[in-house]
Amino acid sequence: MNGVLFDEPGPRARRRTRIATAVTVVAVLALVAAAVQRLASTGQLDGDLWAPMLDPSSEEFGPVWDIIGSGLGVTLRAFAVAAAASLVLGVTIAAVRLSLGRTARIPLVAAVELLRGLPVVVTIFLAGEVLRLVDSGISTFWALVLGLTAYNSVIIAEIVRAGVVALPKGQAEAGLAIGLTPGQVMRSIQLPQALRAMLPAVISQLVVVLKDTALASIVFNDVQDLLYAANRLRLVLDNSLQAFVLIAAIYIVLCVVLDRAAVWTERRLSRSRPTTTAAVAPAEETVTRV
Amino acid sequence: MDPVLDNLDLFWSGFLRSLGIAAWAFAGSMVLGAVLAVFRVSPVPVLRAVGTAYVAVVRNTPLTALLFLFAFGIPTLQINASFYVFGVCGLVVYTAAFVCEAIRSGINAVAPGQAEAARAVGLTFTQTLGQVVLPQALRSVVPPLGNVQIAMIKNSAVVGAIGVGGELFSVYARLSSAQGYERLPVLLGVAAFFLLMTLPAGALLAATEKRLAVAR
User: Judged by CB atoms within 8 Å, which residues 23-82 of B form the interface with A?
Assistant: First the structure.
């Protein structure tokens, strides 16, 4: 779209662009300078606040990265289990909702709407309480996984359902015409196509799952995930700013890797099936996952 | 449900305070997000880069980490404010990235011929965007933008966790730990008050979508 909003710049537009560029660069530099100045004057650039995390020759470097590493492990494990469970459950919910009649699906739709309207933190809290009622010895890790799964499976179900609804009617009709049962049509014709078309939206929801694992630090005090590691580091090393900046950077790297993997998968899939996917995928879907 | 009914006034004031947080974050994120969206489609490459970098960084950071950074990192720079202000700022910074993307997708959804026609009659970039593209983008922007803001309302629950005080999250903390009520009923009360915000917002969004969809 960018090329559409403005013409190939002429001499005056080029001059304006140069002026705007200069102004922006100056503004950004001023902002950076002010930030650096502030960091320096409050002593936040001091080497000993950063060295334990960034300087391999520092004696704290090893223990610090052990903490970060084990936090990373917990985050990735929670993400992997919750993501896999959300995918399976989400596809199942979508298939069931689409197969049920208008009245039979009312309870399911109500449950979906309720879960969609709740903040994930509240869902995780609720999962913790429910699990405690069932078995008081169960680890909070599973409460986190359950809470994340309950919320995200419902969202993924909605994405998959939108994908099935967007398929041309002829797909299901053709399946029924050659004698497949409605269940077979769903499983072998509609769901595979819907999943492929909705893959970008599904993956961006998985990025949300990854980010939401960080909520563990708010809800429980014993899920030792990446953010927990940050909190531990900042209390020991007394470097709140530095610890959170580093951990945020690790989260960003993880999410970007996941996102790149999504783009790569999407390219591969659309290469093998060039026609059907493009027609159904609503591009805006991907931006609404917060 | 006694714990909820006994403390209904506490829940109500918590609800209003949470609503206040959401209202500030709504206003702030709309303004910042719109500015960023204009950056991202502008003819100035540096501005585009600034917008892209902002979105890439903020969208991939967990809100919880961002809020902790605001609440515990910024004060080390001797910039002091209440947790309420830090919380709202964190939520604004986070939500703006998503608002920016929603608006940009809306701009992209306007038929290219519209912008081309505007340019053909000699409108500048600002005029093309302000008088031709954005008014039309508004229509296709409503659904994604609405979803972003409903998600923001839900995310505002996280803001309470950094210790703002007075909102629904701290009502839960206060009743369940300090006053020793059963946790589950209190939690269900908090959940109900959040639904009181998100379900009407969802219905409002659906109604607006329906109204706007007529012309297409």
Answer: 41-48, 50, 56-57, 59-66, 68-69, 72-79
Domains and CATH numbers, chain B: 2-213 (1.10.3720.10)
H helix intervals, A118-190:
120-134, 140-166, 169-177, 182-185
Q: Do A219 and B44 form a contact (C-beta atoms < 8 A)? A: no
Residue B128 structure tokens: 């093309």
Whether A27 is covered by a domain: the verdict is: no
Q: What's A44's DSSP letter? A: T
Q: Is residue A97 part of a domain?
A: yes
Considering only alpha carbons, which residue of chain A is nearest residue B110? A1
Q: How far apart are CA A240 and CA B75, in angstroms?
A: 9
Complex ipTM value: 0.85
Residues in chain A within 8 Å Cβ distance of B69: 241, 244-245, 248
Residue A213 lies in a domain: yes
Q: Helices B134-161 and B83-109 sit at what angle, rounded to 10 degrees?
A: 150
Q: The domain containing residue A176 runs over which residues?
A: 76-288
Q: Which residue has the tokens 């493009």?
A: A278
Provide the whole-model pTM.
0.86
pLDDT tens for residues B159-179?
887 777 778 888 888 887 777
Q: Has residue A64 been placed in a domain?
A: no
How many domains is chain A built from?
A: 1
